[in-house]
User: Fold these one by one.
Assistant:
Number 1:
Amino acid sequence: MNASAELLTSPCWRVPDTAPKPDAGLRALPMSRREMEERGWAECDVVIVSGDAYVDHPSFGAALVGRWLEWLGYRVGIIAQPDFRDVEAFRVLGRPRLFWGITAGNVDSELARLTVMRKVRHDDAYTPGGKGGRRPPNATIVYTSMARQAFKGVPVVLGGVEASLRRFAYYDYWTDKVRRSILFDAKAELLVYGMAERALAEVAWRLREGSAWHGIAGTAEIRKAPESPTDALRLPSYELVSALTEAGRQAFADMTRVIHLKHGAFSEAVLTQAHGDRELVVHPPIQPLTSAELDVIYALPFTRRPHPSYGRERIPAWDMIKDSVTTHRGCYAECAFCAIAQHQGRTVVSRSQASVLDELGRLTRDPQFHGTVSDLGGPTANMYGTVCRLGRPGCPGRSCLFPEPCPNLDVSHARLLGLMRAARRVPGVNHAFVTSGVRHDLALAGGGPEYLRELVEHHVCGLLKIAPEHVSDTVLQAMRKPARRSYESFTAAYRECVQRAGKPYSIVEYFISGHPGCTLADMVELACYLHGKGIEPEQVQDFYPAPLTLAAAMFHTGLDPLTGKPVTVAKTDREKSLQRALLLCHNPEFHDKAREALREAGREDLIGTGKRCLVPPGRARSTGRARAGG
Ligand code: SF4
């Protein structure tokens, strides 16, 4: 393991001599008393409760954090998808000596249970056999309550995407209400937000040393109002932002803008928010890990397999990622609807080439690996190796990519190209595919023809994924995505490349329906565009207002929090279903709805058998809302 000297400068990263050594024998972390006894442990220091099955792979949050704490010398046990009605399920590993770590898992628990149109999902990719129903709604809150009942007096630390995005008062799509910070509803001591390793190391160290654990960057806590920091920036209170009045909505938009500007980038600001007579205190974002630190984490002894107790039952999410390698974390794109930047941070940290190749080497020695790396990527495949020349603290406060790439962003794809070429040369790797999404404006600005050629010739497994999301420039502006011309230039350059390489041309485009700022007329524009190009999207993303995103604030308030301008919002299920039907109007199942949408948009001229028409004529019927056809 290449632990750099820099790594050991923090006292909380110093491993005591008496600490158990990380299990280099490639055993998973214990999920039972028997496994604890095999290690000679009478108790765990930390017990992590997760809404996902335990897969000992770095793509699973509980495994990543568990292995990291193990490396720092803590005894870590995992309780995965416990029966949330049975307190005994929370007692299987005994009382944690230091703290509980509670996470809903890799996805929001309610989104894992319901579709955006509120239909119950019967599957769950993070569960053995892919079966749904193993995690409760609001899992973070439910697990915390059960852990408290199991062992009184043990501190609870919340983490993971669900808690992270709900650290401030937030808009909850499922109840259509603004809720208190999840810390209040879960009644937990602390919340670690964003990528947790650095903050969690400090929390664990302070608890081990018996020192106070207040004021740690990257965490949120509740204080009595007089105890909260005097130099903090005060957000509008929960009571104000949750009010169903114009003032309440305005305050919610203001709160979102301040959080976005003050906590979106590297910042020293402490933000507080009154909730009744108590105060939520959210400490500044913690510094992202360095590349050397990330290398250490990815070199930890993961088995890369589900815990053996699952037997032969398959876990779909593991099947998807088991042969993939993460090259970097973070995303500076700041798309309005996306929660990645809110959780992983806006600074991209890339692993060294040596670390990625080392992991590829370990993968090829796995007897279950058959030569194909399913993905060499991260949140956006081609952000690997790109950096801000100023460093975040020197940022003048603009967006890195929107509306155009910032001149301070070094968008060169040279490091990425070097990595792609080196990955192909690893003995035992026959293919190293890139299946993470490619950011098209970045590819044009920093990769150019060389990058596209390399992708086409060696790294595309039939289909390249890109996410234009829409083609109406007004909607793209609300989404903070690049203009249509960028998507068109990319597809033209890509097409030319595949033709030269003599390969079949295939791109999968992702589009969103129902995004704030998108009217029925905008969806008609998109549907006509796709129809004209012969594109029939199979995957349509229904807009989901993920807490803490700019788009969630637009959805709730009808205001763009950054500009203060009003935004049109498709809020009812009917409005959303009409937009969706236009995107899927090539599918006969959606013809009735698409006709209804076209009538409502005053575009009956697009119903018929002509070349331009989007849907054939159906039974004559009126929705009662249709305007005269144009
Ligand atoms: S200076 Fe430019 S590239 Fe650097 S963080 Fe700011 S917006 Fe991004």
Number 2:
Amino acid sequence: MNKKISKYYDQKQASEYEARRNNLVWHAESEVFDKIKNRIASKYDNSMEVLDVGAGTGRWIPHLHKVSSKYVGTDISENMLNQAKLKLEICPEEFKDKVKLIVSSVNKMSQNVSGKYDLIIMTRFLSHFSINEIRNILNIVKNFSKGDLIVSVRVADKSINLLSEILDLILRSPIGAIKRFRKSGRLTYARLDTDYNAVIAQSGFRVTKKNLVTQDKYNRYEYWELTLD
Ligand SMILES: C[S@@+](CC[C@H](N)C(=O)[O-])C[C@H]1O[C@@H](n2cnc3c(N)ncnc32)[C@H](O)[C@@H]1O
């Protein structure tokens, strides 16, 4: 797993994380998340057990307290989870007893987390990992799943010319290009959805719905709903 990413979130990034991301994409994500969450929660009578992997600052806590009987947020960064604790201040008192925030790397979850969950969330998380690591992560979270999973995925528009996307990225932001390559081993998101579909199929999960969050010239940002077969 990527140690640099873990260190990055453990520094002052934790206190600035949400302020830096409070933009149109962030709000579009919240809208899409709420729609999905409401639909899933109604299956569980608004009383579902939720596991948020790479929960970060606990951005989903205020969206979940009315529909969850249990919320477990895990993250490798204690500083990020300290920010998540602050979210509890705006939740009803009775919800606070239903929340556990656990410092754990995703690959140590079997040692640190117990139980099975109606809904598992992994937003803005899988993009930190290579496709082989994602295969491993899906196998890990499968052991905690009773049914539903939400993941965020960035996919390339099929009609684009790959070369022009790569050239555009390099010209626009050479540093961005280097960062993207170091993070994910890719300069383009082309075929990322094909890779995701393949590892998901191998994991025993099935994609049931792809929800568009936002798109730019080259890419679509989507929230995928998965279910355990
Ligand atoms: C971009 S943030 C996403 C936070 C939140 N899920 C969201 O949607 O805003 C990624 C989070 O993944 C956590 N993370 C990175 N590597 C991890 C690992 N190996 N195990 C668990 N958490 C990890 C980071 O500490 C960070 O809080």
